[in-house]
Amino acid sequence: MYKAIFLAIALSFCAATAFANAPVFADIDADKDGALSAEEAATVGIGSELFTKLDVDQNGTLSAEEYAALK
Ligand SMILES: [Ca+2]
Ligand SMILES: [Ca+2]
Fold first, then answer.
1. Residue 54 is part of which domain span?
2. What's the chain's Rg over C-alpha atoms?
């Protein structure tokens, strides 16, 4: 009984990670300054047009919050 529940939880966790294929912010932030430069964003396919759109406060970098709007 408990084993079955544990398995179900483990499986759903695996499924969740398998489908979470959007790159993690921290992984894109190569220089770990807490923001994504246009160059860092470009490494995951965010072009200049999309970058400008996501950069709501127009400071030239994407914060974690701004990047989250992508999902
Ligand atoms: Ca950065
Ligand atoms: Ca910004």
1. 22-71
2. 17
Cα(34) to centroid(ligand 2), Å? 11
d(CA 63, ligand 1 centre) in Å = 9
Domain assignment present for residue 35? The answer is yes
From ligand 2's centre to the CA of 63, what distance in Å? 6
The number of folded domains in the chain is: 1
In the DSSP assignment, the letter for residue 11 is H
Q: Per the confidence metrics, is the pTM higher than 0.90?
A: no
Note whether residue 51 is domain-resident: yes
> What's the mean pLDDT in 1-28?
63
Confidence of residue 59 (pLDDT cuts 50, 70, 90): very high
**Ligand lying closest to the C-alpha of residue 35:** 1
Distance CA 3, CA 18 (A): 22
Residue 2 has pLDDT above 60, yes or no: no
